[in-house]
Design brief:
The chain folds into 3 domains: 70 residues, 2,3-Dihydroxybiphenyl 1,2-Dioxygenase, domain 1 (Roll); 73 residues, 2,3-Dihydroxybiphenyl 1,2-Dioxygenase, domain 1, CATH 3.10.180; 31 residues, no CATH class. It is built from 5 helices and 8 strands. Strand 7 and strand 8 form a beta hairpin. The two termini are 19 Å apart. The strands form 2 sheets. A 4-stranded mixed β-sheet has the order 1-4-3-2, covered by helices on one side. Strands 5-8-7-6 form a 4-stranded mixed β-sheet. The protein has 202 residues and is α/β, with parallel strands linked by helices. It is 22% helix and 24% strand.
């Protein structure tokens, strides 16, 4: 699989966002979820609350799950980003299919080589099955496992980057590399491909 090549690349156009503020997921067992993310994965709980009444089924709902007074907890997932969970009442919603359209197939967290080894040791200690380390793109290793709610998680490591992982440069392709794949898409013409690859280096 073609991906980023050796020698760090910098995109020509910067993204308008600064990364993930928080990723909000759903669980039906907040206690088990809290124990897993703090004890096993080492993500500290930083905020525990109940969603204020009226924001579930009331007129103030702005996209929250449609249940009143549910728990909403936040965990520090590193690099000033948060992982959040809503606690859905047990039995009220079906289990998700991670391969369904609109679902989350998996969530990958970037870690240093030392943390990568620590996570593998923690998974073994807690007897949690996992796959890996698996070579991914050039320079990238991954460990895959499931949390108590069935979310597939990955811890991703770029060993050559040591304690300063550079995620975007690791995966950035050249215009030509990306264009070869984009050209296989139905309806893609040269103008569209040029626009889509505009941020990539030559």
């Amino acid at each position: 699989m073609e991906g980023g090549v050796a020698g760090k690349r910098v995109t020509a156009v910067k993204s308008l966002t600064r990364g993930v503020h928080h990723l909000a997921l759903c669980t039906d067992d907040m206690k088990k979820t809290t124990e897993f993310y703090t004890r096993v994965l080492g993500m500290p709980l930083v905020h525990a609350m109940k969603v204020p009444h009226g924001l579930g089924t009331g007129p103030g709902n702005r996209g929250n799950p449609p249940y009143e007074d549910i728990r909403h907890y936040f965990f520090d997932m590193g690099n000033d980003s948060l992982l959040a969970f809503f606690e859905i009442p047990p039995g009220k919603e079906p289990k998700a299919n991670r391969n369904a359209i609109g679902a989350m197939q998996h969530c990958a967290f970037v870690v240093t080589p030392a943390r990568f080894k620590d996570i593998e040791a923690r998974l073994k200690q807690h007897k949690i099955p996992y796959n890996g380390p698996i070579p991914q793109l050039p320079g990238l290793l991954g460990i895959y496992f499931y949390d108590p709610s069935g979310f597939r998680l990955e811890f991703a490591c770029q060993p050559e980057d040591a304690d300063a992982p550079a995620v975007i440069p690791c995966v950035t392709q050249t215009k030509a590399e990306a264009a070869r794949e984009l050209a296989t898409m139905p309806g893609a013409d040269s103008a569209w491909i040029k626009e889509m690859t505009g941020a990539l280096p030559d």
